Amino acid sequence: MIEGIMMLYLLGICLVAAVTDWKKGKIYNRWLSLGMIPASILVVLYYYGHRESIRLFLMNLLAAIAIAIIFYALKMWGAGDSKLWMFLNFLFPAGWYVTTDSMLFPSMLIFMLIFLEAYLYIFLESIWYRFFKKKKGIQLQKEKFDSQQVWNLLFSISFLSLVYTLCAYFMGEYYESNRIFFAVVGVLLTSQLVAVQFRGKKVLTVILCILYVAGAVMSGGMRMNDLGLTILLVLVSHFSLKFAEKYNYEWVKTSEVKSGMILSCFAVQQFLCSRVKGLPESTDETTKSRITQEQAESIHRWEKSKYGKEYIMVVRYIPFAVFILAGLITYLVGVVIIK
Question: Which residues cross the membrane (predicted)?
Fold first, then answer.
């Protein structure tokens, strides 16, 4: 009975978050804060009658918090998404998890479903824009496939290959039983690894390759199938995301710019020569760079100034709370089928 109440309440909170994220581009803290009050009561009541699951609950919650912090730090989702993810793991009843003895943490499958569905949506949406709506997208600068890109891809491949080899050596059966999870994390990290630039990256890439080969030989020999899958994973995820990047931006009328929007780097660069006060000075093209109402008003004034433009480039906002809800529903459907 109480499990059903917890699930309905969790779905309700995720639905509200998805709607506000879709319409307003925000997951409101007050909703989650107020939602924690009845959620805490439900959790206490549930685990009072299921004390054998408290350890599983705490281990899963700690893993979820760690993921929330890491992915927020890597700018792979916003603060609201992190909080909603933690809320989900706090309220989700342990009795509804599908687990094995070697699973890293119970909500691992929900996590994978969320990001796989988000990745699939972005890729399919890009295909729709390109081939059905005949939109070429916005490419800020043409990039040639040169030696630097090869080195960037080699760095990503060597880094992930070494990490996978170390995980296989030290984690043994846990790694083998959770390879899909590690593959998903690899897909999510590929763009970060390719894009990161620092002095000595080529040298470090060579060192990583040597360490990978040495580690593979010491642990029983080169696993060519694993290496091939890692190379395929990096190449497919990198080039599919590069294709989708063209549709990350859109032109809007400068007069229609409003608070909460995220400006592109190109747009902010256009403000450098302007004397209009209050214009945004920087952006990292994530939710951390949402403009305020005052900045939106300054942009409206900028349009009428000497360097003003009728249109301005903004970052298309994708409401990630929708994918958290979709991943949760997909998981629940799977649980009902299995049970």
Answer: 6-22, 31-48, 54-72, 105-129, 150-172, 178-196, 203-221, 227-244, 314-338
The rounded distance, in Å, linking the Cα atoms of 286 and 297 is 21
pLDDT of residue 247: 79
Please tell me the total count of domains within the chain. 3
Torsion region of 72: left, alpha or beta (phi above 0 gives left; psi -120 to 50 gives alpha): alpha
Helix (H, G, I), strand (E, B) or coil at 92: coil
Asked whether residue 226 falls in the same domain as residue 292, the answer is: no
Kindly give, in sequence order, each residue whose CB lies less than 8 Å from that of residue 105, ignoring residues fewer than 6 positions away. 59, 60, 63, 64
Residue 278 has pLDDT above 80, yes or no: yes
**C-alpha Rg value of the chain to the nearest Å:** 23
152 plus 174 within the same structural domain: yes
98: three-class secondary structure by DSSP: coil
Residue listed under structure tokens 């249109």:
311
- The sign of the dihedral angle between the CA atoms of 218, 219, 220, 221 is negative
Q: Are 248 and 129 in contact (CB under 8 A)?
A: no
**Contact indicator for 175, 226 with CB cutoff of 8 Å:** no
- Domain membership flag for residue 15: yes
Task: For residues 261 and 296, give the distance between their C-alpha atoms in angstroms, rounded to a whole number.
Answer: 9
d(CA 228, CA 288): 37
* Tokens describing residue 1: 């009975």
Q: Which domain holds residue 275?
A: 249-315
Name the token pair of 192: 């970060």
Please report whether residue 122 resides in a domain.
no
Q: pLDDT tens across 72-95, in order?
A: 888 888 889 999 999 999 999 988
Residue 117 inside a domain? The answer is: no
Residues 310 and 331 in one domain: no
100 shares a domain with 154: no
Give the whole-angstrom CA distance, residue 157 versus residue 69: 25
Kindly state whether residues 261 and 238 are assigned to the same domain. Answer: no
